[in-house]
Amino acid sequence: MVQQSSASADNQDSNQMYLVDLRPIVSEATTQEGVLDDTRGVWQGLYERMEPEETLWVIALNDYREGRMWPVSMAIADYAQEKSDLILKNTITLHQWENRGGDMESAYDEILLFVKNKREYQFHKDEIRVAHVYEGNEWGGEREE
Question: Residue 90 CB: number of other CB atoms within 10 A?
Answer without folding.
Answer: 12
